[in-house]
């Protein structure tokens, strides 16, 4: 305590020494100037201290509390040192951790960069897993990109392989097509050359009747060969395009077999080989199938067997397996011909191919027969296969089709039990004067076809008028009462379709037969829808033409003749 004169009145520390003593001059000046404050000054012991004082306004005494600075500074200094030390330690620790984290991050980023570089080179990236979320996302993204690139690469390689295979296949196809076209050129030009050459020779007025007959037979034979070649090409084209359709009709199986034997027997006799058709087990008497296609298949394969056999025999064995919905017919063709080498068997059923080029040079042919037969048999629900073949010993083929078993049975026997069909009609036996008294209108724009058809019909006893186009044919048909009209389909001014449609619209009821070089089913359907009764295909076959005329004019079936 300090009184008003600045004398120490009371003191907690060393009172005996300092009570009654004056306070320091600086302190007295301080308390005189200000009633209360906290100052830093020296005590009577000359010790630096923090001094807090307050002077009473009534008694003018001053209360003083002094705290040596040392007492306060030491813990503060110690605390500051501790905090500083801890801060430095923490800073070192954070630095170490940061360095470790940065090192790990740098290593992860470096690994990711190496992975990206590997990915750029087309290699699989190997990026180590990381606890850093962003780097881990980058690693997963690189792996996804690598997987996608690997998939794309695999897909690209597959596409390249497919493209290469397609290229090789296209080259092979082009090569096969070129070979085929060369063979076709040979196959077409050979009979065409014979036809033109012998036709020119027949202009010689001094030619003997024997030579004339021989030349005519040669021209006809080569014309039939040329027709078969073109027919095979058209048939294959229709099958490949899906335009071929099945015409199911009821027919006699033994008669069909007899027809085939009758068609091929002469060729077999020319080569002095035997031809046998041998039914095995119970066979259906009547079946429902497409007999035209079935005949074409069997004639193709049996014809090949005869062509490639120089001596011995050709046999057709027929059997049937009855099923719930019909019967599976099996035809096994066996020959004693030249056989097929194992390395050539893969080419048998390929288009435009034969066993080897020497086959074409030696035996001729377009290489379409077996392929066409297989396609046709597949249309009939079966197939064609090579069972066995031995070079120099012969071959064995099997044809299978599915047919409906209509009625009847005939049992195992030899081909002698089969009778050759006479379905070609009376005109094939004696075509002369079979159309006597008939009036026929021929509507045809090609002069050569007019002359040919008129000669055939006049030789058969018919009277023939000609029209040069559909409009002229329409007018003549309405002006005169003809027994039958033969009309070409493609003509100038008015086509056969248009002329026939108009004739039917005007009430014309006499038979009208279409003359066409097209053998497509679409052409036939269009002709029938236009009002034609039937079609006669070109090139014109005399017997078929006369049979058609007789049939639709009612001479073959008197009950159909008009009053």
Give a verbal description of the structure.
There is one protein chain. This protein has helices at 15-18, 25-33, 69-120, 133-201, 209-240, 253-270, 291-307, 357-363, 369-379, 426-429, 447-459, 470-479, 496-505, 521-530, 542-553; strands at 36-42, 48-55, 62-68, 249-252, 274-279, 283-289, 313-323, 326-335, 383-390, 394-410, 439-443, 463-467, 484-488, 512-516, 534-537. The protein is α/β, with parallel strands linked by helices and 563 residues long. The strands form 3 sheets. Strands 4, 5, 6, 7, 8, 9 and 10 form a 7-stranded mixed beta sheet that branches. The protein has a 5-stranded parallel beta sheet with strand order 12-11-13-14-15, sandwiched between helices. Helix 4 (133-201) packs antiparallel against helix 5, helix 6 (253-270) packs parallel to helix 7 and helix 12 runs parallel beside helix 13. The radius of gyration is 58 Å and the shape is rod-shaped. The N and C termini lie far apart (168 Å).
Q: What is the rounded distance between the termini?
A: 168 Å
| Oligomeric category | single chain
What class do helices, strands and sheet pairing give? alpha/beta
Put simply, the count of helices is: 15
Secondary-structure element series: HHEEEHHHEHEEHEEHHEEHEHEHEHEHEH
Task: Give me the count of strands.
Answer: 15
| Fraction of helical residues | 40-55%
As residue ranges, the low-confidence spans are 413-431, 559-563
Biggest beta sheet summary: 7 strands, mixed
Mean pLDDT: 80
List its salient traits:
563 residues, seven-stranded mixed β-sheet, five-stranded parallel β-sheet
